[in-house]
Structures are given as structure tokens and as C-alpha cells.
Amino acid sequence: MSSSLSYYESIHRELKEEGYINSGNINPSERLWNRKIMTMKREDLDKLKSFRLKRIVKWAWENSEFYRKFWKSRGFDPEVIKDWRDVTKIPILRKDDLRNDLSANPPFGSIMVPELARRIRFVGATSGSTGMPTFQGWGALELDYFEEAQARYLWSFAGVKPTVVYANYLNMSGFYSWGPPLVETAMWRCGATAIAGGGETYFSWKNRHNLIFRLWKVDVLATTPWLHRLIGEEAKKEGWETPFKVLLLHGGAAAKNTKEKLFQVHPNAKLAISVWGTTDGHMAIEVPGLDGQLVVWEDMEIFDIVDPKTDEPSNEGERGELIATLLNHFTMPLIRYSLGDYVKNEFLTDPDPTYGITHMRFSEPIPGRVEWMFKVKGKLLLPIYIEDAVDEIPDTTGMFNVFVYDNDMDKLKIRIETVKGNVDALYDKKARELLANRIGLNSDDIDIEWVEPGKTIWTGYKLQVFIDQRKKNK
């Protein structure tokens, strides 16, 4: 057995023995999935992060050809890492760096540890919507830890326990890590019944999926905010009530008004929780009772925020680009990797009042990606700001597409679904005034294309709220 494989397996055993990975078999009356880890003292979390950061950096330097070359070319020496706060000294890794490495060294690039690459259990891939997809290799350790991270919020926040029925309506197609390979196995760890429905097939098999919801009396439904609403609207139209008690909102931050609309179309739902995550294995989960505050499992990763123009750390309270370091991904390390999300550099570390969880929380929702920012008449906007306003327009389904044709546009061009058979000038005028008032524009700065339900642009189970036409126009 190679030294790298032996070390990898010893770390996996260590994580289980020390309780960071809970195998399950806990009393259903226990509120927290992993109380020992989820309520660690802050000073112990800091020590753990420092230890794990030094370990993963040393591992990458010694075992990944990519990192040795990448870091040497930027003058980085792993010996400068003494504390977890030193993470900002590490060069930022961006998606184009991975793409270039992958193209030169297919199929995974030189970033993956060779001995472990021959033992991967799951291949993940991004959608490739912004270019060539990037791939990730998951081994036994990475899979185990990600299932643990999933189980923590599913059991503790969503009540996913024995006898509960959970339906996963995310992407069930190949390469998606939040599908059957990981999330469903986390369900089994919790003892729940898992239905891998697949949101991308809802449109073609709508009657079949609606029947499953009714017959199985699904307790917890996980999908995008937009598909949640569409399913609820369909149920109302057909004259039945959805059985869901908990709505897990994936694939994009849900605006405040969107949540209110979801409770209207899902009358049995008592809880709606925003779940932020990436195909790579990053995640942050909204804590029930603390709207918009997403908890990060700090034994799993370190986040830092930078100015996207300078790559320098953002000041506290400023918004910038989200950078992340996975502390337990050894097969394919992702260290100081840019996730591209636009967030506020402000984290809360006081234990939450309901669960006593000590891991840090984002102070506000993650509104969207840096590349989703756009300007209209100099006003900086993101799709989530538009969504909150669209939800207030009467007789709309809440579905919309923003068409971004320039870096600084003269008009906001937006497509909105309405149930009105005939849109007159007065309805259009009032809608533009409402939008303008909410987002800080003049009504003449807004051009609405009204369409009937089902005519907005989707990709699978995701509504495409941001349609980038800038590249096409160059």
C-alpha cells in the first residue's frame, strides 16, 4: 500500500473515531445529529481549523503536482501557515486554473492525488454554464464527511428522522453530488425514506410526480424556490393540497417575498430553509428562526472574502467574492478556491438561541454570484432584488428572466409571467412603477415583456433569472 493511501485511510479512521463523522444509530428524540461537534467551544474550533489547514496544505504540497507548480509560480511557501487566519496568504485558485489543468492533463488534471484517483467512488462535475465543466473526484473519506454534513441539518433542522419521507427534487442526472450518490445516502443514515424524484423531469412527468407527492405523503421536499412554487401552484389548480411540512430551498437564495408566497401555495408547510451549496461540496444552511443566517460547518471548511478587483481581503462589513478551503478533501484538494458568490464579510459566532450551535453564521443571505451583478443607469443590482419586487406584482407567477445586454444598461429588460389573459397599459404601468420603487429606478427605465405561465426560460429544475447576452453582442 502506498504511503499516500495509507495516510488517507488513517485520517478517515481518525475522523470516525474522534466523532467528526457520526455513523448514525442515535435516539430519534435527540435534537442535534452530532451534538459534540455542532456545539464545540469556539477556541476548540479555532484550534481544529488551524490544525486541519496546516495538514491539508502540507498534503497538497507533497502529493499534488498541480499545487506544487501553482504555489511555486506565485511564491507561496506552505511553512507560512501557522494559524487558520493565515489562509489569506495562500494564492487564490480560480475555475480557469482548473480548466487549464484539466485540458492539459485529462481527465481530472494534475490536481488529483494519483494514488487516490484510482480509488474514487464518485465523479462530480459542474454544469459548464460558464465554460468547460470542472470535475471533482470523491473518495471514501470525502463522501463520508459530506454525508455527515448533510445529515447535520437534515436531522437537526428539517426533522429528517425514521418514518419521515423525504423527496429530493434536485438534479438526478450524472455528476451531480447533491443527488442520489450523497444526499440519499445521508437520508438512510438518518433512517428516513428517500425518494429521488429529480426536478429536471417534473415538466415532462408532472402527473406522475404529483401522484407520488400525494400517495407517499412526502414530509420534506428539496428543490429550487421556483419549482417549489410551481408545484404548489399546480396543486392548487388541480384542487389538492401539497403534504409538505418542510421546504428545503436549493439552487439560489430565496427572497423574503418568495418565502411568503411558498407558504401560501403549500398550506401544510411550517418551515422553509435556504440551503446554499456547490457541486464541489461546500455548504451553508439557514438556521430556523434566524432568517437569512446560514451556518457553516467549520470543521469542514474555511471561508474568506476578497475584493474581486484586487484579490485583497475585504474589510469587515464590506461585500466581496467568496473564497473557500475544504479541510477534508484529500483526493482532490480545493484550497482557497473561488466560489464566485457575492457576500458580506460579516460572520456571527454567538451560539444560536434555539440549538446552541457554535459554528459561525453568515450575517445575511448569499444573494448571488459576482458575475450576476449588473447595472442599470449606474444602479448596482442582483436578480434577488428583482425577485422580491416581482413577487409583489399582482397576478404573476413569480417567474422572471432578467436580460443583461451590457455592463451598464439604460433599461432593465425583464420577462415576467402573468396569469392575466390581456395585459393593458395600466397594468404594465403599475407594475413598472412598483418595480422601480422597490429597486431605486424610474418606471421609464424598465421594459417588461409579459408572457403567459410556462414561457420563461428554465434549465432543468432551475429558473434562469439571469440571462447574460453581453458575450453574444460583442
UniProtKB/TrEMBL annotation:
* Domain AMP-dependent ligase C-terminal, first and last residues per copy: 378-470
One Pfam family name from the record? AMP-binding_C_2
Domain of life here? Archaea
Which molecular-function annotations from GO does this UniProt entry contain? ligase activity
Q: Which UniProt keywords apply?
A: Ligase
Q: What is this protein called?
A: Fatty-acid--CoA ligase
